[in-house]
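Minutes, project check-in
Item: structure for the 166-residue chain
Input as provided by the requester:
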Amino acid sequence: MGGVNVQLLAKAHPKDVAGMVLVDTMTSDQPARFWALIPQSHLDEFRTGLRKLPEGIDFDTLAKGLTESKASPGWLHDKPLVVLTRGKEEGFPGASDQLKAQMLSAWQSAQAELPLFSSNRAHIVAKQSGHFIQHDNPALVVAAVSEVVMSVRSRRAVKQAAIHED
Protein backbone atom coordinates (compact mmCIF):
# COMPACT_ATOMS: atom_id res chain seq x y z
CA MET A 1 0.00 0.00 0.00
CA GLY A 2 2.98 2.28 0.49
CA GLY A 3 3.67 2.41 -3.23
CA VAL A 4 0.24 3.90 -3.87
CA ASN A 5 0.91 6.59 -1.26
CA VAL A 6 4.33 7.34 -2.75
CA GLN A 7 2.82 7.78 -6.20
CA LEU A 8 0.09 10.06 -4.87
CA LEU A 9 2.70 12.15 -3.02
CA ALA A 10 4.86 12.42 -6.15
CA LYS A 11 1.88 13.58 -8.19
CA ALA A 12 0.83 16.15 -5.60
CA HIS A 13 4.38 17.45 -4.97
CA PRO A 14 6.47 16.66 -8.05
CA LYS A 15 9.18 19.20 -7.20
CA ASP A 16 9.74 17.47 -3.84
CA VAL A 17 10.42 14.05 -5.38
CA ALA A 18 13.84 13.40 -6.92
CA GLY A 19 13.41 9.68 -7.58
CA MET A 20 11.37 6.68 -6.59
CA VAL A 21 11.63 3.01 -5.64
CA LEU A 22 8.43 0.98 -5.86
CA VAL A 23 8.58 -2.29 -3.93
CA ASP A 24 5.99 -4.73 -5.30
CA THR A 25 3.38 -2.01 -5.19
CA MET A 26 -0.26 -2.33 -6.06
CA THR A 27 -1.28 -0.74 -9.34
CA SER A 28 -4.38 1.13 -10.40
CA ASP A 29 -5.47 -2.02 -12.24
CA GLN A 30 -5.33 -4.11 -9.05
CA PRO A 31 -9.10 -4.70 -8.81
CA ALA A 32 -9.54 -5.79 -12.44
CA ARG A 33 -6.33 -7.73 -12.92
CA PHE A 34 -5.55 -9.28 -9.55
CA TRP A 35 -8.47 -9.09 -7.15
CA ALA A 36 -10.77 -10.46 -9.86
CA LEU A 37 -8.92 -13.79 -9.56
CA ILE A 38 -9.54 -14.09 -5.82
CA PRO A 39 -12.73 -15.74 -4.51
CA GLN A 40 -15.10 -13.33 -2.75
CA SER A 41 -14.67 -15.06 0.62
CA HIS A 42 -10.93 -14.35 0.55
CA LEU A 43 -11.49 -10.76 -0.58
CA ASP A 44 -13.83 -10.34 2.39
CA GLU A 45 -11.03 -11.60 4.67
CA PHE A 46 -8.68 -9.08 3.04
CA ARG A 47 -11.16 -6.26 3.75
CA THR A 48 -11.44 -7.36 7.38
CA GLY A 49 -7.68 -7.62 7.70
CA LEU A 50 -7.21 -4.08 6.38
CA ARG A 51 -9.49 -2.69 9.08
CA LYS A 52 -7.33 -4.34 11.74
CA LEU A 53 -4.08 -2.75 10.54
CA PRO A 54 -2.68 0.06 12.73
CA GLU A 55 -2.62 2.39 9.71
CA GLY A 56 -6.41 2.61 9.81
CA ILE A 57 -6.89 1.78 6.13
CA ASP A 58 -10.23 0.56 4.88
CA PHE A 59 -10.89 -1.17 1.59
CA ASP A 60 -12.89 1.66 0.02
CA THR A 61 -10.15 4.19 0.81
CA LEU A 62 -7.55 1.84 -0.66
CA ALA A 63 -9.61 1.35 -3.83
CA LYS A 64 -10.03 5.13 -4.16
CA GLY A 65 -6.27 5.62 -3.76
CA LEU A 66 -5.65 3.04 -6.48
CA THR A 67 -7.94 4.95 -8.83
CA GLU A 68 -6.20 8.23 -7.99
CA SER A 69 -2.77 6.67 -8.53
CA LYS A 70 -3.52 5.86 -12.19
CA ALA A 71 -0.77 7.49 -14.18
CA SER A 72 0.22 8.01 -17.76
CA PRO A 73 3.49 6.66 -19.09
CA GLY A 74 6.29 9.14 -18.62
CA TRP A 75 4.68 11.16 -15.83
CA LEU A 76 7.93 11.04 -13.81
CA HIS A 77 9.81 12.27 -16.90
CA ASP A 78 13.49 11.32 -16.39
CA LYS A 79 13.48 11.04 -12.60
CA PRO A 80 15.15 7.79 -11.49
CA LEU A 81 12.69 4.95 -10.91
CA VAL A 82 13.37 1.40 -9.78
CA VAL A 83 10.53 -1.11 -9.65
CA LEU A 84 11.04 -4.28 -7.62
CA THR A 85 8.56 -7.08 -8.32
CA ARG A 86 8.05 -10.35 -6.48
CA GLY A 87 8.98 -13.57 -8.17
CA LYS A 88 6.88 -15.90 -5.99
CA GLU A 89 3.16 -15.91 -5.27
CA GLU A 90 2.05 -17.02 -1.84
CA GLY A 91 -1.62 -16.91 -2.78
CA PHE A 92 -4.18 -17.51 -0.07
CA PRO A 93 -4.92 -20.62 1.99
CA GLY A 94 -6.24 -23.32 -0.30
CA ALA A 95 -5.23 -21.63 -3.56
CA SER A 96 -4.28 -24.15 -6.22
CA ASP A 97 -0.89 -24.02 -7.91
CA GLN A 98 -2.67 -23.09 -11.14
CA LEU A 99 -4.44 -20.15 -9.50
CA LYS A 100 -1.19 -19.01 -7.84
CA ALA A 101 0.47 -19.07 -11.27
CA GLN A 102 -2.39 -17.00 -12.73
CA MET A 103 -2.15 -14.53 -9.86
CA LEU A 104 1.61 -14.18 -10.26
CA SER A 105 1.27 -13.69 -14.00
CA ALA A 106 -1.41 -11.01 -13.52
CA TRP A 107 0.67 -9.26 -10.85
CA GLN A 108 3.86 -9.29 -12.90
CA SER A 109 2.03 -8.09 -16.00
CA ALA A 110 0.73 -5.05 -14.11
CA GLN A 111 4.15 -4.48 -12.53
CA ALA A 112 5.79 -4.45 -15.98
CA GLU A 113 3.88 -1.26 -16.78
CA LEU A 114 5.17 0.67 -13.75
CA PRO A 115 8.69 1.31 -15.13
CA LEU A 116 7.08 3.16 -18.05
CA PHE A 117 6.40 6.05 -15.66
CA SER A 118 9.98 7.26 -16.22
CA SER A 119 12.48 7.23 -19.04
CA ASN A 120 15.22 6.65 -16.43
CA ARG A 121 14.24 3.28 -15.02
CA ALA A 122 15.07 -0.25 -13.98
CA HIS A 123 12.78 -3.19 -13.31
CA ILE A 124 13.99 -6.11 -11.21
CA VAL A 125 12.00 -9.29 -10.56
CA ALA A 126 13.08 -10.67 -7.19
CA LYS A 127 12.85 -14.35 -8.15
CA GLN A 128 13.25 -15.68 -4.61
CA SER A 129 10.94 -13.16 -2.92
CA GLY A 130 7.26 -12.96 -2.15
CA HIS A 131 5.33 -9.72 -1.72
CA PHE A 132 7.42 -8.53 1.22
CA ILE A 133 10.69 -8.15 -0.67
CA GLN A 134 11.98 -5.92 2.13
CA HIS A 135 11.82 -8.97 4.45
CA ASP A 136 12.82 -11.66 1.96
CA ASN A 137 15.72 -9.74 0.42
CA PRO A 138 16.43 -6.48 2.25
CA ALA A 139 19.77 -6.09 0.47
CA LEU A 140 17.94 -5.83 -2.85
CA VAL A 141 15.77 -2.99 -1.55
CA VAL A 142 18.84 -1.21 -0.14
CA ALA A 143 20.61 -1.61 -3.49
CA ALA A 144 17.61 -0.16 -5.33
CA VAL A 145 17.39 2.85 -3.02
CA SER A 146 21.16 3.37 -3.23
CA GLU A 147 21.06 3.26 -7.01
CA VAL A 148 18.28 5.85 -7.18
CA VAL A 149 20.21 8.12 -4.79
CA MET A 150 23.39 7.72 -6.87
CA SER A 151 21.47 8.43 -10.06
CA VAL A 152 20.01 11.61 -8.59
CA ARG A 153 23.31 12.83 -7.14
CA SER A 154 25.37 12.14 -10.24
CA ARG A 155 22.64 13.07 -12.73
CA ARG A 156 23.16 9.80 -14.59
CA ALA A 157 20.90 7.02 -15.76
CA VAL A 158 19.88 4.27 -13.38
CA LYS A 159 22.17 1.25 -13.80
CA GLN A 160 20.08 -1.91 -13.65
CA ALA A 161 23.22 -4.01 -13.30
CA ALA A 162 23.94 -2.28 -9.96
CA ILE A 163 20.75 -3.80 -8.52
CA HIS A 164 20.76 -7.57 -8.14
CA GLU A 165 19.59 -10.35 -5.86
CA ASP A 166 22.00 -11.88 -3.36
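Outcome recorded: The helical segments are 2-12, 30-33, 40-52, 59-68, 97-111, 133-136, 138-154.
No further action items on this chain.
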